Amino acid sequence: MDLSSIEIFQAVASHCSVTKAAAAVGRVPSNVTTRIQQLEEDLGVALFCRDGKKMSLTREGSIFLSYATSSF
Fold first, then answer.
1. pTM of the entire structure?
2. How far is CA 70 from CA 31, 32, 41, in A?
3. In whole angstroms, what is the distance from residue 32 CA to residue 72 CA?
4. For residue 53, what are the CA distances in angstroms to 4, 19, 32, 35, 43?
5. Which of 25, 33, 41, 49 has its CA 20 to 30 A from that of 4?
6. Radius of gyration of the CA atoms of the chain, in A
7. Cα gap 1→24, rounded to integer Å
8. Fold of the domain built from segment(s) 3-71
9. CA distance 54 to 72
10. What is the pLDDT along the chain (72 residues), one digit of tens a residue?
11. Which helix (H) or strand (E) holds 12?
């Protein structure tokens, strides 16, 4: 986990969309998806519920977002 992954996570959480988050952080959507999957694997929890193209935070994702927001 690095600062870039946390910034990407925050963007997806804010935009509820990989495509919109990718545009916001200047990355391609596939990179954003890969980074989120790696972060979830590193943490051992699902951070997002996926419903088609819309994403919402899981309980664990909300907890991590509050940590990420206050720490970085």
1. 0.91
2. 25, 22, 22
3. 19
4. 22, 8, 13, 16, 23
5. 49
6. 11
7. 20
8. Arc Repressor Mutant, subunit A (1.10.10)
9. 25
10. 789 999 999 999 999 999 999 999 999 999 999 999 999 999 999 999 998 878 999 999 999 999 998 876
11. helix 3-15
